Amino acid sequence: MNAITTLLESFYEDTTPKRGLPADAYKDVEFWRAECASVFTRNWICVGFAHELQAAGDAVPVTVAEHPLLLVRNMTGQIKAFHNVCRHRCLTLVDAPKNVGKLIRCPYHAWAYDLDGQLRAAPHFGGVNEHEADGFDKSKNGLVPVRTHVWNDWIFVNLDGTATEFDTYSATMQARLDGIDWDNVNCIGTLDFGEVACNWKFIMENFIEPYHVQFVHASTTDQPLEDHYTIVDGNCLGSAVDLGEEIGTAGSLGVSSRYLTLYPNFILGRYFPDQMGVYLNIPTGPGTMMQKRALYTTEGQTLTPEAIEGLKKLWWDVHREDHEMTERLQLGRASTVSEAGGVLSPAWEDSVRAFQELVAQDVTTVEQSNRGE
Ligand code: FES
Ligand SMILES: [Fe+2]
């Protein structure tokens, strides 16, 4: 039996209540590699915010599943994604967000690509002032494109090109966002949490279970457990709270809200009546990830700078409370006690289990395809 299948045996045991994924799913390099080859390759992965690429030539590098990618806004205003790798000797082209002008120029030997990825210059490749060479076809040495879809402010890629069309893929989530006038959605700020020292799945699971809210966020939110419920709807998993009226006091959150995730890494939080937050979650290794959050208003309203600062502080505090927990979840995986995973609440963590089953299915496909099934 293959290693991943063996690893998942305890997860699939018929226990009541259900177990979580085993510890190795959160720390083992082989499991991470299997996720890179499946979860992050065959699905639509959120990799960036369109508002971070305002002008033609704006370029943002991002590494997904160990693939260095480059997001670029081209001359006609479209956002494109390419493998961030020069076709000459294959070094990474752009290593920090910047405006590249009209050409993406490799720093090593000055090959230059236009914003649609075409190779425009390979100076002196055939000798002094010889820019062509026998058998060398510039048109076949452009940047390698990656399938991309921009949905509102969010840039998605599908590395292997096999995922269903984005609108089909995200249909269950989109159906739950009825009533939003997307033309009135404005980004009012971002928070950059930098690196969080935990496996990416702990962050996703944290958003799709409401169980921890009353304990972890006792000082920042005012949302009683009994008003919460979980959402399990195909690849849209989440948690929500419906309150009859706003009960938050100044500086705390006490509104009806929904956290919807689109498997595997996209999270959208909707806070009634008129706010939204979207999370960019970039896994960087078995035990690390990067997180950013963009804040939006949904009714086209403008907020004072003080109000925006207040919201940013609230969300910074809320998510730092979450990160402290997810980093401790990671530390707990060093113990033999966590080998077979914990136990999941049948009432509050069925959504977590559903998320984990999607991961387990995806990683298992790697071994099946290795076996030629
Ligand atoms: S590696 Fe890019 S030009 Fe040589
Ligand atoms: Fe939380």
TrEMBL record:
Its cofactor is Fe cation. Its EC number is 1.14.12.18. One of its GO terms (molecular function) is iron ion binding. It comes from the Bacteria. PROSITE patterns: RIESKE (PS51296). Signal peptide: none annotated. Residues 44-157 form the Rieske domain. InterPro entries: Rieske_2Fe-2S, Rieske_2Fe-2S_sf, Ring_hydroxy_dOase_asu_C_dom, Rng_hydr_dOase-A. Pfam families: Rieske, Ring_hydroxyl_A. Keywords: 2Fe-2S, Dioxygenase, Iron, Iron-sulfur, Metal-binding, Oxidoreductase. This is Biphenyl dioxygenase subunit alpha. It comes from Ruegeria denitrificans. The lineage of its organism: Bacteria, Pseudomonadati, Pseudomonadota, Alphaproteobacteria, Rhodobacterales.
